[in-house]
Amino acid sequence: MIDSILIGPIVGAIGGVASQWFALKSKAIDLEDRKSQRDHDRQMSSLQHQQALEMTRVEAAAAERKVLLEGEIKTTTADLANLNTAMQSMPTWSGIQQDDSPTMRWFKTTIEAAATMVRIVVTLYLAIKIAWMVDAVFNRLPETIYLPADLMGEVAGLAVRGFIEAALTAVSFWFGARSTVLKQQPSRGRSIEA
Hints:
By secondary structure, the chain is mainly alpha-helical. The protein has helices at about 1-90, 100-145, 150-175, 180-185.
């Protein structure tokens, strides 16, 4: 009996200590869990904040791109409207009418393109001819043929005269040869013929 009297309090004391130890361990584990939960909540909150911030940046960039595209669309639309107005106000050079057949429109457009190219080709030809004349008289001729000074002056005079004639031909061709269709159409409320 004495053994049971001594063992009971010892076992009770050991059980109380063990119970307290388990309670402390349980509290420590509970505190650790709460700390982990707070860390997790803080990390999730930070992650959600970063995602919201990134989403705001993406939305702002998309809104900026949208505004830029809308501005470009409006600018392009205005440019096309201005171009259309300018093209409608231009005189018809080839005489294309609304009731012309597609074949006739193609034919008149081809004639207009050829007439335009003639001007360019003649101008380029005259520019090349002028450059050749200047090179021939002032660079190649003195190297190949010996001429006295007075004849060289005369040749240089002829070259300058040819240069001026070719330049005047080019300028008068550009500004002198105009379409008769243009001369028949009124310009800014008054006739060109007047």
